């Protein structure tokens, strides 16, 4: 039964999504994988068989997402695990990124995932089981990165709606997990996965330094192994009581605790101001 689970993975032609799809197929799972370009996906996966269903999908189009979900159910009979992995990075200060650039990042990273959730949930709810993984980032838990304000905002949104989703779908026997990876050695920091502003402002030295660091120093030297991240997600998918929050990478673990300690310090330092704002008895 374990090997017959059907996974639906978006953004599967590269990065963590590709590692996950390859490992799932090697382990005997059924996998429907989506990409903007099916040819790229087929070439990347390189494993044509009945357990693999490559799908071309525009995650910003509700109709395109609905068609991909329906084709998956028609082909495999059900969906057990949904992975909202499609998305891209955005590096630029809040001032220099245009409305269009900012909106596009939200359209893919946030509203695209919501399209998938809306179209997958009727199937999961009807069968009374399932698991949705929403891929966020450690940048969705702590925003202390110059130049990543919009990207972090999209991933904070993923954290927020996943927590609510987990509470909403628990009664249907369906789980939701928000995944927060740290730095993993994928192509995420290359130009194909990371957008930069069309009109940069030279005065933002901290942002340009951050951009240079991520593009030329961190890229290719990330400490996280995407193959191990994929394996961790498969392990969590088989847990009877999976977590709502899954942080991946020692760096993510340390940054999460740094954020928790920072909030705790602010709470206790300003406790008197915080707790004395109610009506007088």
UniProtKB/TrEMBL annotation:
The keyword Ribosomal protein does not apply. PANTHER family: SHORT CHAIN DEHYDROGENASE, SHORT-CHAIN DEHYDROGENASE_REDUCTASE FAMILY PROTEIN. It holds the Pfam family adh_short. Residues 5-187 form the Ketoreductase domain. InterPro entries: KR_dom (IPR057326), NAD(P)-bd_dom_sf (IPR036291), Sc_DH/Rdtase_CS (IPR020904), SDR_fam (IPR002347), SDR_oxidoreductase (IPR051911). Belongs to the short-chain dehydrogenases/reductases (SDR) family. NCBIfam families: PRK06180.1. This is SDR family NAD(P)-dependent oxidoreductase. Keywords: Oxidoreductase. SMART domains: PKS_KR (SM00822). It comes from the Bacteria.
């Amino acid at each position: 039964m374990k090997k017959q689970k059907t996974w639906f993975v978006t953004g599967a032609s590269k990065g963590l999504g590709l590692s996950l799809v390859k490992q799932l197929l090697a382990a005997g799972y059924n996998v429907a994988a989506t990409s903007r370009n099916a040819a790229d996906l087929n070439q990347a996966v390189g494993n044509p068989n009945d357990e693999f269903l490559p799908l071309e999908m525009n995650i910003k189009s509700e109709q395109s997402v609905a068609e991909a979900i329906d084709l998956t159910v028609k082909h495999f009979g059900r969906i057990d695990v949904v992975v909202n992995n499609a998305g891209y990075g955005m590096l630029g200060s809040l001032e220099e990124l245009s409305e269009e650039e900012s909106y596009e990042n939200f359209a893919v990273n946030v509203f695209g995932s919501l399209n998938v959730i809306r179209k997958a949930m009727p199937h999961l709810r009807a069968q009374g089981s399932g698991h949705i993984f929403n891929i966020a980032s450690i940048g969705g838990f702590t925003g202390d990165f110059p130049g990543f304000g919009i990207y972090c905002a999209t991933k904070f949104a993923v954290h927020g709606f996943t927590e609510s989703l987990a509470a909403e779908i628990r009664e249907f026997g369906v789980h939701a997990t928000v995944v927060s990876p740290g730095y993993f050695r994928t192509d995420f920091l290359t130009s194909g996965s990371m957008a930069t502003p069309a009109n940069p402002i030279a005065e933002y030295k901290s942002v340009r330094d951050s951009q240079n660091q991520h593009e030329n120093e961190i890229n290719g030297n990330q400490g996280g192994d995407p193959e191990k991240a994929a394996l961790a997600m498969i392990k969590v998918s088989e847990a009877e009581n999976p977590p709502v929050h899954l942080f991946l990478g020692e760096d993510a673990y340390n940054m999460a605790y740094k954020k928790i300690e920072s909030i705790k310090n602010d709470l206790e330092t300003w406790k008197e101001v915080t707790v004395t704002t109610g009506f007088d008895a």
